[in-house]
Amino acid sequence: MTDLIILFAAAAIGGLLASIFRQPVILGYLLAGIIVGPFELGIIHDYEQVETVAELGVTFLLFTLGVEFSFAELNKVKNISLGGGGIQIALTIGLTAFISVTMGWVTSIPQGVFLGELLSLSSTAVVLKALMESNETSTPQGQVMLGILIVQDLALGLMLAVLPALNQPVDQIGIAIGIALLKLALFALGAIIVGKWLIPPLLRLLAKTESRELFLLGVVALCLGIALLTGYIGLSTEMGAFVAGLMISEVEYSDQTLDYVEPLRDICAAAFFVSIGILIDPTFLWNNLPLILGLVSLVFVGKSLIITPLVVLFRYPLKTAIITGLGLAQIGEFSFVLVEQGSNFGLISQDLYMLVLGTTAMTLIVTPFVFRFLPILLSQAESFPALETWLTKFDAPIAISEELSLENHIIVCGYGRVGKNVVKLLINQGHQVLVIEQSEEKIKKLRDKKIPYLYGNASSLLLLEKAEVSTAKGMAIALPDPMSSRLCVKRALQLNPELDMVVRANEMEDIGMLYQLGAKEVIQPEFEASLELSSHLFRVLGLSKTTIEADIQKIRESQYLPLQPERSPEEISRELEEAVSTMNHQWYTLPTDSTLVGMTIEKAYVRSLTGVSIIEIKRFGGETIDYPDAQTVMKTGDKLLLVGTPNDFEAFDYLATKKVILPNEGDACIWVSIPKNSNFSGKKLEELNLQEQFGTVVQGIRRQKKYIRFPDIKTDIQAGDNLLLFGQLDLLNQVSQFVSSQGAS
């Protein structure tokens, strides 16, 4: 009992300290295990008890993964999970066996195969925890990683079944594999039967008792019972727990099950990570640090070089492939199970056992940092043109529908539950719709319904260009992760600065950033549900429909501020920094003699002229303005946090330091398109004589993929160009009519 109390206390303290220092809590758990383990303080004496709780943690992690993932979710990535996961395991085992035997790390081929099995497995527990903390389980890379991890977990049962025969003749290995596959097939058949005919009535019976504890006990007993059964027949208990979760995922009580089991899962999972730390000998790590660091580097580089090309081969974007490759590059916790069994059969020496243990532990410690900093590094890499070209090399559409219509269309990014409803309503009203989606399963549905689509990454600039964003009427963004949504907004506005765009905010913290990046409307589902419930109650209480609609509109226009919980300036700044870290950004100090001093952000037309978004302002006197609104006045010495591309930053510096003609009070700006058959095509700006005739100034030319900022009078005009004009509104309308009338005869 004392050991368990120490275990959970160490986990709580380690996790708290990690949180205070803004580090992954997994790191805190691992370090806590090292400190209380036998190699440091030595206050944990009965490791078997700890191991039992740790095994429960892994079991419940995989059980809840099964409940959340479901057969429908698994079906979305079946190609990459079954094909890619299977190829990855085979390649890792084959290459490791060849290299280890050739280099003399092992003395026989079976030992090399066993070492390959250890390295082929990644950490379901660590990756799942990291994806949950970053809210990325629904992203393409999250789905791909989970799909491959599930295949690896299923392969564990086969590996365990083959272990006793690895030192035997080849024919016995074949027999062992055949028996293991037969067991898997029989278990799968039994799981389908039980999941279809026995689980639903059992859960209904438990739910009828209306007792939370009885429902929880029944579900836990079911999970552990199936896990125990799979262990008894020679398969892994973890696989049984995952299959038990999949069974429940298809029943109407899946959400209730998840709600009840999650606290139990989190407590036991924390114990699991502490138990890994207990196994780590810091002295051994220190004495062999160069060798272990070399092995860790070799594992990360080797596994990522195997996984990344495979993901690209299955037609995913390069960035998704890189994140997946490095995200799965660690050695998994189930390798501890394999290495224990392998040592019993003499498949691994004691020295190699300790090295594998240390290397595995180090890869698990490094993984949370990979998930935290890799997206930031990739974002920074995109600020260099050469690297951006390389990273977006595979971002072209995977497939394009035959029914594609790109004239006066509305683009919907994401065909999930929200996107599907938006598309349905738009089509019912007779609008031309184009859907951008990255899920193969959803593309099949769009193809069956003959809805125009682009199959690929909606935040890719190449894909947005292919979708003809520049001519679209509007755009609705309902993507599953915040980073993709932010990039999609920013890049769509690069192509069409006047695009009317509505975006779903996945989290409350995303609202301000999305508005700041240029979204015309941001919808947060939880707040919208609150508004609809309240409006109904207000009608019951006798308030007029007009009053209710006006009040709700005020809340929406205020970016849901009355509904948002109070947050300290420090919390808001921290959220802002985390969001900005995944985009190109830089700080800019406004010069004393800048033309922008004394102007509001709106009147300076900062986004229209330069493409940057001002996310934060730090005043000379110490005041900080997060998410400044359009009426914020810029002052001398202001430090502005800008988000944009390198070209945008150059344009902003030009705007701030050169004597650019800015609109006067009462002036406006419009985009005017040069017709394809225009007489102006091939002429220079000075020949249009717009400033003398109409008192208007051309401050930008958008030409296909290129944006010419602050063009001089010698700039050529081409058919299809869009000119950004400043001047009085009535004169701008005259210019628009004048340009439109200059068609070729």
Textual characterization of the structure:
The chain is of the alpha/beta class and 745 residues long. The chain has four domains: 68-264 and 282-364, no CATH class; 410-524, NAD(P)-binding Rossmann-like Domain (Rossmann fold, 3-Layer(aba) Sandwich), CATH 3.40.50.720; 570-657, Alpha-Beta Plaits, CATH 3.30.70.1450; 667-742, Alpha-Beta Plaits (2-Layer Sandwich). Helix content is 60%, strand content 9%. The chain contains 31 helices and 15 strands. The strands form three sheets. A seven-stranded mixed β-sheet has the order 1-4-3-2-5-6-7, sandwiched between helices. Strand 6 (500-504), helix 23 (510-517) and strand 7 form a beta-alpha-beta unit. The chain starts with a helix and ends in a 5-residue tail after the last helix. The relative contact order is 0.07. Residues 573-655, 657-741 form the RCK C-terminal domain. GO terms for molecular function: potassium:proton antiporter activity. The chain crosses the membrane at residues 56-74, 86-106, 144-166, 172-194, 214-235, 263-280, 292-314, 352-374.
